[in-house]
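Lab notebook, bench 4. We co-purified these components, and the gel suggests they stay together. Before we commit to crystallization screens, I want a quick structural picture of the whole thing.
Request: model the full complex, all chains together.
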Amino acid sequence: MNKQVFLELTIEETISKYPFMANYFSDHESTYKKHTISVVDNIANYSEEELEDFAIDVELTISLYYEYFKQTCEFLGIKEEEKVKSLSILPGHNKSLESEEYDELTISQGEIIAIVGPTGSGKSRLLADIEWIADNDTPTGRKILINKEQPDKKWRFSSGNKLVAQLSQNMNFVMDLTVKEFIELHAASRLIEGVDEIVIKILDEANRLAGEAFELDTPITSLSGGQSRALMIADTAILSQSPIVLIDEIENAGIDRKQALKLLIKEEKIVLMATHDPILALMADKRIIIRNGGIDNIINTTENEKAMLSKLEQVDKYLMDKRHQLRQGKILQMEELHVH
Amino acid sequence: MNLITISGPPSSGKTAVIVKTIGALKQRNLKVGVVKFDCLYTDDDIIYKKLDVPVKKGLSGALCPDHYFVSNIEEVVQWGKAQKLDILITESAGLCNRCSPYIKDVKAICVIDNLSGINTPKKIGPMLKAADIVVITKGDIVSQAEREVFASRVRQVNPKAITMNINGLTGQGAFELSTLIYDVADKIDTVKGKELRFSMPAALCSYCLGERRIGEDYQMGNVRKMDLGEINE
Ligand SMILES: Nc1nc2c(ncn2[C@@H]2O[C@H](COP(=O)(O)OP(=O)(O)OP(=O)(O)O)[C@@H](O)[C@H]2O)c(=O)[nH]1
Ligand SMILES: [Mg+2]
Ligand SMILES: [Zn+2]
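Here is the predicted assembly.
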């Protein structure tokens, strides 16, 4: 749509033609009071004094309005072939400027990669390289490709299109909303249609992950640790715009972690997981070993390790059962731990 | 010398972001200095001194810190030049939501935090609307959904800005910001003759001039009355 023609539409016409702009006008209702005339005419109706009072710079206001419309159109029009299907990390160097010795690491949709290494070894830098689409221009000299190609720099700068979503143990809900309102707000920010179904889907998935079920009208700030984590994961899997999800240590309490990873994969995310928990690390297809600021090694999870995973899970379950009994006020019984 | 103006609501993480960014700039052997503008009190100068960079602070006292900023920025620029800085950063406490210290053709950064509530982007006006770069902090303690909602609110107010997430505690994202703020070609010798991006409203009533007594007899100049409707409604 031609800029001039667009700016001449009345607000009513704009909303009927572009329903996603309705949100914009309800959030700016104090500026655009009359919907029967255009944005430009709304502003032209203000006196000098009012412009000063409401801090409206005519030219800037109109250019920001048009920019928002243009970006949102692009954002909603993301085509199938532009979706992130794989991410490649090309080697750079570690803190001592020694080259990283691997050819290229490509991670595809639905794959899980664990990242291991001591604190301060360079895990955050690796993540930052991905988020910033490093192009030999970060301290590690790495290069990132998307779908095997040099990506558009838009990933760096746009707020609507971030590449990486993060989940970590320290994150909390801070808004004063119910579960339903919260999901609706998130969906509205993404201009998504069919919100009601999404709300139900997220609640169902979250309850599948959480030990104890919660309801749509539960305030998010009163959810237990496990329930919060479950809602965050289900919401990120289903509603986050970001194709890559970074998980920073999820604790074992109150949430089915295996199911959580399955959900993320089902929703076609690329999953990176910083962890030292053997159960999580072995669920990954590969693990990246970070040392001295560089990728020191990339290990494919071996058959042997996969076999061991089921044993570790049995030990884990034994421990969880004991914890559960303790919480229920029972006296613990000495039961043999049978590991097959 | 490059000049960078940074503004943002109180405690949004301006100093934390600047400190981490200076770390990255120093790696490139750039000489950085900071001037903090605040209203009544600040300890930020002590934090910057620990980094061993030249620092000055100015307290506006009874004035709006942004008005105070404009009246002093030329002298501050001359100070920066005398210190032979490559980059002069000003940090202004964004206490007055109607004003902002941004100058045309001088890089303007707004620092705003995820904890401040989703209506804050709408409330803080020119400080956010007219910024070139918006830095969002404290993403480490809120959920992914809340970060996305907050960022979308920022985009509604200022879709033109580059928006970045920075963790003020770990510095994640600060290296990236450092690559955006220094430009060798960008030489500022003086700001004389430059213009503010936004006008600052006149503060010209009798109370601006120190009047304390209440009542119509004492109200002169630019006085405006609230519309309370019928008094016994
Ligand atoms: N968790 C967390 N805390 C942060 C982050 N950034 C800053 N903080 C903390 O927030 C508090 C305020 O940060 P400052 O950098 O002093 O904020 P400021 O904007 O400079 O504050 P004034 O100059 O006083 O207006 C400090 O305790 C910081 O450690 C962040 O990204 N995450
Ligand atoms: Mg400060
Ligand atoms: Zn002011």
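Chain B touches chain A through 44 residues (CB under 8 Å). Worth comparing against the SEC data before the next meeting. The mean pLDDT of chain B is 89.
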